[in-house]
Every structure is written in C-alpha cells, then in structure tokens.
Amino acid sequence: MADTKKSATLTIDGKNYELPVLSPTAGPDVIDIRKLYAQADVFTYDPGFTSTASCDSTITFIDGDKGELLHRGYPIDQLAEKSHFLEVAYLLLYGELPSADQLEDFESRVTMHTMLHEQMVNFFRGFRRDAHPMAVMVGVVGAMSAFYHDSTDISDPWQREVASIRLIAKMPTIAAWAYKYHIGQPFVYPKNDLDYASNFLRMCFSVPAEEYVVNPILSRAMDRIFTLHADHEQNASTSTVRLASSSGANPFACIAAGVACLWGPAHGGANQACLEMLREIGSVDRIPEFIERAKDKNDPFRLMGFGHRVYKNFDPRAKVMKQSADEVLDLLGVENNPTLQVAKELERIALEDPYFKEKKLYPNVDFYSGIILDAMGFPTSMFTPIFALARTVGWISQWKEMIADPQMKIGRPRQLYVGETARDYVDVEDR
Ligand code: SDX
C-alpha cells in the first residue's frame, strides 16, 4: 500500500480540510478524497477521469511523458522481444515471471480449456452472417455465464481461477469461430499440439479441404501482437470490467462488458478505423488533405491510430508494432505495401506538424497493428476481436486484483446536477 506521510490542504468558504496524499512506487502522488464528501459536503468533478485514480494496482504502470509501459515492472519492449504471450499472461495474472515448470503447467491448463461447450455453437448460428464479429463476441462471451456455472461464484478463489483460465483459453476459439461464421466456413476446433497463437491462426485460416501448415513468421507476429495488447492500466474497457465486477456480477458477464466497451472507435475499434482511414487516403499525395481535416475543429474527422489520453510521447507499443510491420511484410514478400507507405509518410508528416506537436499526438498501438493483421489475411472486422482476445488477460488480471482487494466496494460515482429543481406535476389539460 502507498505511504501517506504528506497531506494537501483544501480551503472552502474559509474552512481548511486536510487530505492525505498517497505516494506510489512510480507515477504522480494521489490525493485521497474518500472522506471529502463526508467532511466538506462537496464532490470532485472529473468527466472522463482525466485526473482521477480509480484504484490502486500493482499490474501495469504507464509513464505517458516518457512513453514507458511496464508490466509488473518489466518494460514492454523487452517482453515483446524476449517473452511470449502466455508467459506475459502468467506474469500479469500472478505477478512474477514463471519458472519453466510453472510455465509448462500454466500453458497446459490453458490448452485443456480451449474447446467450447458444443451447445454454444447454436449461439453463433443465431446471428446474421453479416453480423460484425464483435457483436458475436459480446453475445457469446456473455453467454458463457449460462454454460460454466461451476466458475461463476466470485467468492470462491478456485472458481475465480477456473473462470480466468477458461476465458483466456476460449477467447481465441470464440474469435476464430465468429470469423468462420462470418465468412460461411465450417468451425475449426483447437488442436492441443499447437501453441496459443498458432492454434488461433489455424482455427481462422484452415479449411477441411486441405492441410494447414502454420507459418512460423505469422505465428510469432501474432503472438507479439497479443503481447502488445495484453494490458494497459485503467483504460476504458478495463475500467468497465472493474465497475461491472464491483457489483459482484460473474466474470463472463463482466468480460462481455469489457468487449462491448473496447468496440468503440475511440478505443479498441481504432485499429479497424485506422486501416480503413489509411485505405481511404490511398496515396501519399492525399495525406495533406487529411492532415488538414484532422486539424479542422469543424470537421469531426480524427487521425485514427493517433493520440492517447496518457501517452504524450510515443506509445512504446507502436514502436514495436512498427518494427514488426517492417519485418512481417518483408518476410512475407509484401514489398512496398501501399498502406504501409501511406502510414509511414502520414506519421512523418504529422510528427512534423505544429498542431500534432503542440497537442503531443503520436501514433498509438492501433496505428500499425492493422497493417500487419491485413498482411496476415485478416479482414478489418477481425482487428478489434483480436484486440479483445489479447486484452482478456489484462481484464482478468485487473478483475482478480480488485476482487481480492479487501477495500473493494461497489463503484458508484456521483454527479454535478444541472437539471430542474423540484416542481409540481401539471395535468395535461393545463400544459
Ligand atoms: C486505445 O486508454 C488506453 O490505454 C487505450 C489503449 C489501450 O491499450 O487500452 O491504449 C487503446 O484505445 C488507443 C487509442 C485508440 N483511439 C484512436 O486512435 C482514436 C483517435 N484518437 C482520439 O480519438 C484521441 O486521441 C483519444 C480518444 C485516443 C484520446 O482522447 P483524449 O485523451 O480525450 O484527448 P482529446 O480528445 O481531449 O484530444 C486532445 C486534443 C483535442 O483538441 P482540442 O479540443 O484540445 O483543441 O487533441 C485533439 C483533440 O481534437 N486530438 C486529435 C486526435 N486526438 C486528439 N486531433 C486529431 N486527430 C486525433 N487522432
């Protein structure tokens, strides 16, 4: 727990209120206002939570000014280069890098939960073929509550553990089947002799008519994309999962809420929107037109994949993703990918533009990810489901941390009410 040697003094109507200041292991101090309303009969006001800490956490730390992202203290660029997704998942869930035996046991437990209850196939078939895969994921993940009753009691640590493993293990199958259903191909079942990323690629791209051999370049790139999306502090979808979970709702329903929130174009939906934007730009010579639109206050257009609430420097994930895009496209022989050329030139021009410099807008995790996923053969509609698949371990880790926190209570924000004060009902004949 943070130490509380310092305090802040708030003066309201000539009266002073002492508020404890909590000092973290990294990042800004936090003014503890939990008793403010009781003491001073006032609320604080922070729509969008730009200056509000909603919890304490030991999982992920972001320094937006330095462009630093740590998972349990380990820098994301080191994890992306030296680790792999299920090892990072273990780190996020349990707090330390696993021994070889711990990792083998964890990967085995995940592998043994990758299949879905066979009756869940009926949920997929209830959707229109042209349903967005995220709509399917929201529905099917929520429906897991109806099938896995033996892991919905959040007061039981063992059930919490089983639900965690089930969600991490089954998200690739759900995402892959949402894709297969969307394109009218038969579902492909997971294979236990494949690693996590290879299994997902095979479930997405293999067909019964021929053998599917996993391309190691693609599975390494897929695994790295999963790692780069695993967790990111108290972002909108993670905060959604925490708030939903604070009522005691079961983990499957809460993760479904996280999937729903992630779908928005300002959040996880940006990877799809970004590639569609790059395609709309189409060529380098049209970039200035779009830069001007992004700067125009009267134009709702924004450069998708640019900007971030926390990063006011490069998103370290974007740097790794950019390197990976170069490697994967080169290894795949996708020379001079026009979309990648537009992205690189757009980034160069934007980073030199005074507007973007002044507002500290840099490429974020969504700027390059879509280029790699597109080169791997995924349609843009699958970009956010892949983000949701990877972020599930972050949502689950944050969920476990909150549920185990003795301070945990239901989240219930207040408001600045600016509506009508009390008034009497008026009969319709008198209106
Ligand atoms: C993710 O929180 C997380 O950690 C999220 C995430 C994760 O891993 O969970 O990192 C994943 O969601 C990444 C972000 C993906 N979204 C996009 O790429 C969509 C485009 N970006 C923006 O919509 C925006 O930058 C946000 C939503 C990401 C951040 O918005 P903020 O923090 O609320 O900032 P803002 O909207 O107040 O913008 C500040 C200023 C504004 O101008 P002014 O009103 O001050 O004049 O910068 C401008 C904005 O108009 N601005 C942009 C811009 N982003 C912000 N102008 C043009 N293009 C952009 N992309």
Automatic annotation (TrEMBL):
<dbReference type="InterPro" id="IPR002020">
    <property type="entry name" value="Citrate_synthase"/>
</dbReference>
<dbReference type="InterPro" id="IPR024176">
    <property type="entry name" value="Citrate_synthase_bac-typ"/>
</dbReference>
<dbReference type="InterPro" id="IPR016142">
    <property type="entry name" value="Citrate_synth-like_lrg_a-sub"/>
</dbReference>
<dbReference type="InterPro" id="IPR016143">
    <property type="entry name" value="Citrate_synth-like_sm_a-sub"/>
</dbReference>
<dbReference type="GO" id="GO:0005737">
    <property type="term" value="C:cytoplasm"/>
</dbReference>
<dbReference type="InterPro" id="IPR019810">
    <property type="entry name" value="Citrate_synthase_AS"/>
</dbReference>
<keyword id="KW-0012">Acyltransferase</keyword>
<keyword id="KW-0808">Transferase</keyword>
<protein>
    <recommendedName>
        <fullName>Citrate synthase</fullName>
    </recommendedName>
</protein>
<feature type="active site">
    <location>
        <position position="366"/>
    </location>
</feature>
<feature type="active site">
    <location>
        <position position="308"/>
    </location>
</feature>
<dbReference type="InterPro" id="IPR010953">
    <property type="entry name" value="Citrate_synthase_typ-I"/>
</dbReference>
<dbReference type="InterPro" id="IPR036969">
    <property type="entry name" value="Citrate_synthase_sf"/>
</dbReference>
<comment type="pathway">
    <text>Carbohydrate metabolism; tricarboxylic acid cycle; isocitrate from oxaloacetate: step 1/2.</text>
</comment>
<dbReference type="GO" id="GO:0036440">
    <property type="term" value="F:citrate synthase activity"/>
</dbReference>
<dbReference type="Pfam" id="PF00285">
    <property type="entry name" value="Citrate_synt"/>
</dbReference>
<comment type="similarity">
    <text>Belongs to the citrate synthase family.</text>
</comment>
<dbReference type="GO" id="GO:0006099">
    <property type="term" value="P:tricarboxylic acid cycle"/>
</dbReference>
<keyword id="KW-0816">Tricarboxylic acid cycle</keyword>
